[in-house]
Design goal:
The complex is a heterodimer of chains A (about 260) and B (about 220). Chain A is built from nine helices and ten strands. Chain A is an alpha/beta fold and about 260 residues long. The chains are: A alpha/beta (about 260), B mainly alpha (about 220). The complex binds adenosine-5'-triphosphate and magnesium ion.
Amino acid sequence: MTDQTMVLRVENISKRLGGRQILKDVSLELHRGELKVLIGPSGGGKSTLLQCINFLIPPDEGRIWLGEQQIEIHRKQDLYAYRQKVGMIFQDFNLFDHLNALDNVSIALRKVKKIARKDAEERAMRELERVGLGDKTTLYPSQLSGGQKQRVSIARALAMDPEALLLDEPTSALDPELIGEVLGVIRNLAQDGMTMIMATHQLGFIRTLADDILFMQDGQIIEQGSPAELLDAENGSRTQAFCAKLNELSDESET
Amino acid sequence: MDEWNFFIHQVVPALNRGLVQSMWLILPSASIGLCLGALVGTLRAYGPLPLRKACDIYATVFRGTPLLVQLFVLYFGLPSIGIYLSPYTAAVLGFILCTGAYQSEYVRGAFLSIRRGQLLATQALGFSSMQSMLWVILPQAMRRALPGCGNEIIYLIKYSSLAYIITFIELTGEGKILAVKYFRYTEVFFAIGLYYLFMVTLANFLLTWLEKKLYIPGFGRG
Ligand SMILES: Nc1ncnc2c1ncn2[C@@H]1O[C@H](COP(=O)(O)OP(=O)(O)OP(=O)(O)O)[C@@H](O)[C@H]1O
Ligand SMILES: [Mg+2]
């Protein structure tokens, strides 16, 4: 799936918030078709890192490239163009409450990309079908389940033709029985070669689909490697210990 | 039949005259006041700090003092610094300033009630600030502000009667003159009440229609 074309390069990102150093000199590279997973204890800086990557939180220091182009945050038009190419999926969906599913997906096409309504709606329709919601286009967010809302938000991001997706714990606000439908959609994206970086604690998903795991703690990436390398019970990695803990907790909650 | 003649030939013409004058007060006050409130409310929610503070002070002063006092200051007070306003100007100005302060409160609340996550979502999709305002924030804020703003217009219809105290003869003023002249307070004031009820019912009807037109399933609850 992965080739060596660089899609996104993040170099030496640092961020202070509320007098504390939240990110310390974080760097990573994302190649075409790659799925990188961010994992680590709560407060480790995963969300902050993802939001720094598309400048929802402006980093204090560091540089970001999309392909060959370095992003200059002060050039507004460049920033808006960059954000259109880097989709973001939020933990709590953040759908637009006043728009139905179809308009949620098509509004950015119409108002930001200035695509004619008819074409934008056709495109939105295709994306909603792709996430299995072709029959829910006229429903409003309040009429959708959590899993459906998250799938609409994925369709909304996909409609922009992003070169990469940032996903911040896309399933952690969902009831257990709804997690599968969202992970299924993301799995299909991974298999279709979408480039993604995703914060998640879904171990089964990570084991089978992640190309690379980044273990984040106290604002730094302290371990990095393939699932095979890091999750092997023998190797004594921090990642392995953390995941064993997660497993224990989920076993307890199930029994 | 005497009663009937009194109503047809005295009360109705006088109150109709007053009704037109009241409309002249209410329509500009309500529309300009709403625009003022929208502007001030937006500044109170998103404006730069000094301007936000200034608008807060304006709203506090005009919501914190009786409208009658505001009208007295405009009509009887300003001449002492050389500003002479006609009763009509003083009344409309007072109503605009007062209703604008209340409207700004509803508008501000509506803006602040919109979840920040939706703003993040627009930014992540590459919206400019202007585009998110226009296509996501405003359509929602408008719907959230509507019930409060509509209520304020209904209050304005009723407190427009205070204009007669600064000698602008509108509906209540006409009625009062009549009641005093013929010494028939009960019937005349009862009739005035019906006229106001008519205006409020009309306004309510329009507001309900607008609310229905803007209705979105599940929006505004929770
Ligand atoms: N605006 C802010 N001001 C001050 N501190 C903040 C702010 N935003 C986040 N933080 C702090 O930054 C740290 C990292 O937060 P972040 O949300 O990035 O962690 P996370 O790894 O995503 O955690 P979780 O698994 O709980 O989502 C936390 O300690 C948090 O309290
Ligand atoms: Mg987080």
